[in-house]
Write a structure and sequence with these properties.
- The protein is α/β, with parallel strands linked by helices and 426 residues long.
- It has one domain: TIM Barrel, CATH 3.20.20.
- Helices cover 32% and strands 22% of the residues.
- The chain contains 14 helices and 20 strands.
- The strands form four sheets. Strands 1, 2, 3, 4, 5, 16, 19 and 20 form an eight-stranded mixed beta sheet that branches. An eight-stranded parallel beta sheet has the order 6-7-8-9-10-13-14-15. Strands 11-12 form a two-stranded parallel ribbon.
- Helix 8 packs parallel to helix 10.
- It is globular and about 65 Å long.
- It starts with a strand and ends with a strand.
- It binds N-carbamoyl-L-aspartate and zinc ion (ZN) (2 copies).
- The site of N-carbamoyl-L-aspartate (NCD) has 11 residues, from loops.
- Catalyzes the reversible cyclization of carbamoyl aspartate to dihydroorotate.
Length: 426
């Protein structure tokens, strides 16, 4: 039994407490204390349900030089995540039931965050032939996506949505029009002109979302079961507006935004530093403000990291050649807690919801609230500030666009079903 004493509670239902949270048999047994072998002082801290990341690249199998399950899932629990969806753009892509099972078994043996693999929508993520979704689901896949690539063939995406609808699986898309995106390495506009860098226009995202909404309408009309389209790493004001309108029209669509699009803009590219190179690119301040609005009004369902580790050697190449991607599993919550909640007054309960119930709903999972009988997959967060130190990351990507930023809200204790998987108490 573990007792977390005098701790404030925060979940999607709101803030309350302090309470004395007694944990045993994998559950919250009481909010009024009781005898325990281990007593942790939660004064000044707050307790939240464990986070779920809908979008992380853990690189296994095939690119373990960038990240693997052990380092990625350790980074996850250090970031307060008890559950994580791994992207299938590995080498080879995760497109068979055997590959899904292998990931699940290996992750289970590690005993860190629980892994929910996403599987490829198409064989080899080549955009041509649909994968055996029924078997993938049976093996444990929770979502289908060709992320890392875009879905160029609308017919294939439509057929994929029909197939997934029959199984109750969401299909997640990296929504960028390949033609408009061209070889852009940053947001297209005055700044890309000034820097002399190839631009990726915001319209590339909006154009692809607009198309995908029509594909979704088609699927909705023809499907057995309800199709579910999930838009990944939404980055533009216009893209957000399209999702908002679609939701108002009752279309079965959900969307996520990333820590980097919520806290950084294209201005970061001024120093030509590839650490800020990511797809879709960092946008303008107006886009960032629109995303914040979307977090508040429910257009966005979740904050998802798109943790995309590469080796430092790759990220130290010049801006044109370095790969796209920003790692963020270990800083995502402190970053948004500090930048949105502390600095801008963003409601804490809604922020926590965007890391917990929001993403859980996207996967059709039950919500976790801090009440008696609830599953004890929890994170204890400390308001104490310290600077981001990538040298201490568990991730193999020991660099960060946020290095040196002073943040509070660090996870000091993470529990999965009552078991301590991360501890950094003082
Ligand atoms: N987001 C990125 O910039 N990179 C991702 C791919 C992706 O999410 O599309 C990666 O796998 O490195
Ligand atoms: Zn993507
Ligand atoms: Zn991704």
């Amino acid at each position: 039994m573990i007792l977390i004493r005098n701790v404030r509670l925060v979940d999607a239902l709101g803030e309350r407490g302090p309470a004395d949270v007694l944990i045993g048999e994998g559950r919250i047994l009481s909010l009024e204390g009781g005898a325990a072998q281990r007593v942790i002082d939660g004064t000044a801290c707050f307790l939240a349900p464990g986070f779920l990341d809908l979008h992380a690249h853990l690189r296994e199998p095939g690119e373990e030089v960038k990240e693997d399950l052990a380092t990625g899932l350790l980074a996850a629990v250090r970031g307060g995540y008890t559950d994580l969806v791994s992207m299938p753009n590995t080498k080879p892509p995760v497109d068979t039931p055997e590959a899904v099972r292998a990931l699940k078994e290996k992750a289970k043996a590690l005993g860190l965050a629980r892994l929910h693999p996403a599987a490829a929508l198409t064989e080899g993520q080549e955009g041509k032939t649909l994968t055996p979704a029924g078997l993938l689901k049976e093996a444990g896949a929770v979502l289908l996506t060709d992320d890392g690539r875009t879905n160029e063939d609308a017919g294939v995406l439509g057929a994929g949505l029909l197939m997934a609808a029959a199984l109750g699986l969401p299909v997640a898309v990296h929504a960028e029009d390949a033609g408009l995106r061209r070889g852009g390495v940053m947001n297209d506009g005055a700044l890309s002109d000034l820097l002399g860098l190839p631009g990726n226009p915001p319209e590339a995202e909006a154009a692809r979302i607009a198309r995908d909404l029509e594909v979704l309408r088609y699927a909705l009309r023809r499907a057995q079961g309800r199709p579910h389209l999930h838009i990944q790493h939404l980055s533009t004001k216009r893209g957000l507006e399209l999702v908002r309108e679609a939701k108002r029209a009752g279309l079965p669509i959900t969307a996520e935004a990333t820590p980097h699009h919520l806290t950084l803009t294209e201005e970061a590219l001024k120093a030509f530093d590839p650490l800020f190179k990511v797809a879709p690119p960092l946008r303008g301040e107006e886009d960032r403000e629109a995303l914040l609005e979307g977090l508040l009004d429910g257009t966005l369902d979740a904050i998802a990291t798109d943790h995309a580790p590469h080796t430092l050697a790759e990220k130290e190449m010049d801006l044109l050649r370095a790969p796209f991607g920003i790692p963020s599993l270990e800083v995502a919550f402190p970053l948004l807690y500090t930048e949105l909640h502390l600095k801008r007054g963003f409601p804490l309960a809604r922020l926590v919801e965007l890391f917990t119930d929001g993403p859980r709903r996207v996967l059709g999972l039950l919500s976790i609230h801090l009440e008696e009988g609830a599953e004890a997959s929890l994170v204890l967060l400390s308001p104490k500030e310290r600077p981001v130190d990538p040298g201490r990351f568990a991730s193999k990507a020991r660099y960060s666009p946020w290095a040196g930023w002073r943040l509070g809200g660090w996870p000091v204790l993470t529990l999965v079903e009552g078991r301590i998987v991360h501890e950094a108490l003082e």
